[in-house]
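Need tokens for this chain, all 243 residues.
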Amino acid sequence: MNKISILTRGFVKENPVLVSVLGICPMLATSTSVSSALGMGIATTFVLICSNASIALLHNVIPDSVRIPCYIVFIAGFVTIAKMIIEAYAYPLYLALGIFLPLITVNCIIFARAEIFAKKNSVPDSVLDAIGMGAGFTLAMLAIASIREIIGNGSWLGMKLPIISSFNVPILVMAPGGFAVFGIVMAAMNKFTKTKSGRRKNFDCSGCPSVAFCGKLNAAPAESAAPAAVPKAEVSAEKEGSK
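Here are the structure tokens for all 243 residues:
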């Protein structure tokens, strides 16, 4: 896989929110405004880059039996750094993100990229993968947040929009509106990125972006194993014994 492919596949092809459906909880909670969505996207991208680089650098010396606790230590450390920086230099954003800022520690996107990509590839490739996935996460959040803030609040990035502000739909900045906008954006992306081959008919593990993580692709189904043939000598011996 070339460098450009590693960098760009997180934008659309393997977008962590709209394709892999990861990180939905912080996305729905912080996409009520463009400013909070942008802040969450940048913070998540920072943690992704640092954790991917660290895990790619040290994966050969981390015992496989304790790799998950080690990942948590790395990620939690970088989340603490991001939290302290945002609290010091962007306190309104810190208040807007609230509990979801420290909860980046358990974001499924970061754990998935660490397990699927970073532990198997070099540091430069892992950094490129983190940048692409972080950018894809941020772009998806910005698209959803823009719709919710413009239609739901009549503003964009905190600036009131003429006319629209008088006909806003407040439910879009609430939880039901978040789910509705997320579903519409996902459906639109699925519609416009569909290949010429038509609708997908095969839904086995080979088409899943996380197949390398769960390892089901190489697992043969138990019922597919053919029964072993019984030698003729054993059959004849059983018949004679029964007589």
